[in-house]
Amino acid sequence: MSDEQNLTHIDEKGDVRMVDVSQKADTERVAVAEGFISMMPETLALIVDGTAAKGDVLACARVAGVMAAKQTSTLIPMCHPLNITKAKVECTPVTAGEREDGRVGIHVTTTCGVTGKTGIEMEALTAASVACLTVYDMCKAVDRGMEITDVRLLKKDGGKTGLWERQ
């Protein structure tokens, strides 16, 4: 394996480690991630109509996603704490017929940015995951069958490797 193919969080002895980024230059970095939570159409209607018992589900999910991005290094052991410069969470209702698989639910897209020595992909992924989990938490009383899927990185830019986009 070349150096670029080695797992950076594993040292030569096979032990996990936090990567030393002290010699890297600060660059602007951005990551975009997504997630989807499918649900019954009736549950989606409660969210869209604003009549869910716990309140504004999408507003709460957006705030939770931003808060999660800021806490990523406390959740993922080898993540560096970052001084995040941008965290945006968008929650879009998806109705019948909008997806090929026919599922309805909420599509979450997150964008996180930082000027620093290491990437921000984990923060964007954590934000998407927690936003979906928050929707589940707020609606589980009426729909325990909700399913969180498709949590994935869509784009990352900056740093030594530059731009990567999902095809």
Quick structural overview:
The protein has helices at residues 41-49, 57-75, 121-139, and strands at 27-39, 84-94, 104-116, 147-157, 164-165. It has 167 residues and is an alpha+beta fold. Helix 2 (57-75) packs across helix 3.
Notes on the protein architecture:
There is one protein chain. By secondary structure, the protein is of the alpha+beta class. It has a single domain (25-160), classed as Alpha-Beta Plaits, CATH 3.30.70.640. The chain contains 3 helices and 5 strands. It has helices at 41-49, 57-75, 121-139, and strands spanning 27-39, 84-94, 104-116, 147-157, 164-165. Strands 2-3-1-4-5 form a 5-stranded antiparallel beta sheet. Helix 2 (57-75) crosses helix 3. The radius of gyration is 18 Å and the shape is elongated. The relative contact order is 0.26. The mean pLDDT is 93. Residues 18-159 form the Molybdopterin cofactor biosynthesis C (MoaC) domain. Substrate binds at residues 78-80, 122-123. GO terms for molecular function: cyclic pyranopterin monophosphate synthase activity. It catalyses: (8S)-3',8-cyclo-7,8-dihydroguanosine 5'-triphosphate = cyclic pyranopterin phosphate + diphosphate. Keywords: Lyase, Molybdenum cofactor biosynthesis.
